[in-house]
Amino acid sequence: MSFDEEWKQLVAAAGERQAVGMRLNQHDGGGGGSAPHGDLTVEQKDLAAIGDAAFTLHGRLVKDGDHARASSYGAAAALKKDFEIGGALDHVTTRWKEQLRTLADACAHISSHLEYSDKAHANDEQHISGVFNSLTTLTEGFDERTQR
User: Fold this and answer.
1) Which residues contact 85 (CB under 8 A, 6 or more apart)?
2) Alpha-carbon dihedral of residues 74, 77, 82, 87, nearest 10 degrees?
3) Contact between residue 51 and residue 111 where contact means Cβ atoms under 8 Å apart
């Protein structure tokens, strides 16, 4: 089969598929999402568990992740006088503090984002549903007027 023949067949098949029209999935109204034709699904309870774990980890990092800071800085200051390792210990302690803050901020961001995403998604679903319902009503009214 030549390229031109195969191309014509592919174009015709694509045209037939487009004739089927647009299909939309609908929100289930139960608070969780589902993908009827996909293999990825996420339930709100799973997202909530991840958000809770991130919140708990954030609390532990803030509370327990900084225990050795004061003694490490003290040791670094004492060692700087006579040993080069004092400067290295000071550098490591500073980097630890920065990395700890970055990790705690990331956990807080994850927790907040998951909570926000759930609320935003529910609002978006409600808005989109309202738009489509009003379009359906408009279309039905238009169809009624054109059939008179």
Assistant:
1) 79
2) 110
3) yes
Tens digit of each residue's pLDDT (9 = 90 or more) over 97-147: 999 999 999 999 988 887 777 777 777 777 787 777 776 666 666 666 666
- Nearest-angstrom CA–CA distance, 127 and 125: 5
- What single-letter DSSP state applies at residue 26? -
- Name the more confident of 135 and 53: 53
| Model-wide pTM > 0.70 | no
34, 121 Cβ separation under 8 angstroms:
no
Helices (H), 19-84: 44-64, 69-80
How many Cβ atoms sit within 10 Å of the Cβ of residue 58? 20
The predicted structure's pLDDT at residue 78: 92
